[in-house]
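Ticket #648: bound-state structure for adenosine-5'-monophosphate-propyl ester.
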Amino acid sequence: MSDKIYDVPSAWAERAYVDDARYQAMYAASVEDPNTFWGEHGKRIDWFQPYTKVKNTSFDPGHVSIKWFEDGITNVAYNCIDRHLEARGDQPAIIWEGDSPDESKVITYRELSSEVNKLANILRNRGVEKGDRVTIYLPMIPEAAYAMLACARLGAIHSIVFGGFSPDSLAGRVSDCGSKVIITADEGLRGGRKVPLKANVDAAINQIGDDSVDHVIVVRRTGGKVDMVPGRDVYYDEAAEQVTDECPPAHMSAEDPLFILYTSGSTGKPKGVLHTTGGYLVYASMTHQYIFDYHDGDVYWCTADVGWVTGHSYIVYGPLANGATTLMFEGVPNYPTTSRFWEVIDKHKVTIFYTAPTAIRSLMQGGEEPVKKTSRASLRLLGSVGEPINPEAWEWYHRVVGDERCPIVDTWWQTETGGILITPLPGATRLKPGSATRPFFGVLPEVVDAEGKVLTGACEGNLVIADSWPGQMRTVYGDHERFEQTYFSTYPGKYFTGDGCRRDEDGYYWITGRVDDVINVSGHRMGTAEVESALVAHPKVSEAAVVGFPHDIKGQGIYAYVTLMDGVEPTEELRKELVGWVRREIGPIASPDLIQFAPGLPKTRSGKIMRRILRKIAEDQFESLGDTSTLADPGVVEDLINNRQNKR
Ligand code: PRX
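RESOLUTION: The complex was predicted; output attached.
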């Protein structure tokens, strides 16, 4: 916690779209009469047929239904490309910076149009139609954006799987949504290391069944040798020679699906979060414009990967719908050196920079020199996303990176929300380091206690949103009941975020982190249940329980308690083997940081694992274990404490 307050710099109050008085007025209008407010702002995108209805939503238990602009007809790719061609044909749409500092290129809106139309035709020639699912498993290369927009152009639903996920994770996602087409690359390149994407696709298809996927389109990124299955696999560049660069945009209803993105929850398999067309694009573009105060001439850089929602809404859809110039970075912050981010900012004259607290914390470790040797004079605004930002990291970001000149927008949102819900606006909001501050237009946050009682004034509890906003997810793909169960049953009639939060006397929100069994590792969401099921799939493991623990750089680390099968020796070697096993089963982001071999786990007499106790032990809070008298065998706790693993 920090009690410092940063005023809006005077230059910002003058140039920004919104000052504080305007924020207050627009916010009040947005929540008092959402139909009029969004009816007006829905016009920020082009419609082939205008909507006559605006909001039609219900959070009622058993009848959750979310529709915005439902009778409007539009197309997302048309809005991100075609409508800009006349005025911005020669403006850079995407600036691509490769993994190596020697590689970069600029793609204008006209070039983007040509590439997207060609890829849409490649897909169409392979039978892809409106409503079909296409899986995208690509590194951060322009083709990832082309692929998203080509699907949108045809009305196909894309499902991007982060390139760091394993063949097994990929297989689960491909089969859940039934994609017949996968777009991938021979290999990815990150920090000078190759990632065998095509080989992973082959392994995934092998696992699901050879006839599950009809077509694999392979971008040549490294030129590395890969196996190509005749009749199924085709190189992108070869397919592109066979098609024209004209493909008419499909006419889509506002509520037709745009994409599925899988995300971890507290139970079971990842859920396919479904976003639709009209409301999503209105919300992504409007938040991008106002929160980053995007003006013509800005160069905007979000360092996320398109495999996460941040990449969807704030690298591709929001910025391109606004006719912006968006930078796409293939590499990592510390390659070839820890000055890379700042050098890229100088190279491309970036004005708006949006990254995650984990990146800031890891770069902070290298001191100020790698930052200060660069100019960063072009920067005017900084952003943060993905996890709570600790005040030390905030202050460093502000002072060292932004030279005390750039406001920081700490943006709170989720895969499910489609766009940012709680955030400062740079010309309107006084900043408190560590607070995401106030709701965006149309967003009604509430803090509730465990029983669902709405708390007022300064308080702490769980964060819910009381009414719908246009960017909200519409359902879990193929499982509407799970959607209602996950988000609308804890506090009936309200959307439950899964986050805890505090509201201070100024009405500012401070997100305290997840209150469910989801952990946030380097800004990436990880369901503890997924790591547990990967661990128990190992033949030597009998039982596993996974919790988060505070980690200096990652925010949270993964702490696994593992009970071995009878007779198996707990060795250092086995510990390493299990870490490698989880990496292979899920992906490197799920690697446990610490594994404690535990002869027994604390359970109630009915056999339920008491995770609260495991969390406290992992957090080193032995004094506040709470009541352990209901445990079937209270003795296990002492053993767990005595053998707690320490950070290496
Ligand atoms: O716990 C919150 C945290 O990240 C979760 C959402 O993760 P995901 O769906 O992967 O989306 C990440 C990018 C939007 C939230 O439930 N979170 C995200 N942004 C913040 C945050 N926690 C605190 N402050 C933030 N700015």
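RESOLUTION NOTES: Residues 263, 309-310, 385-388, 410-415, 436, 497-499, 511, 513-514, 520, 525 surround adenosine-5'-monophosphate-propyl ester (CB under 6 Å).
TICKET STATUS: resolved
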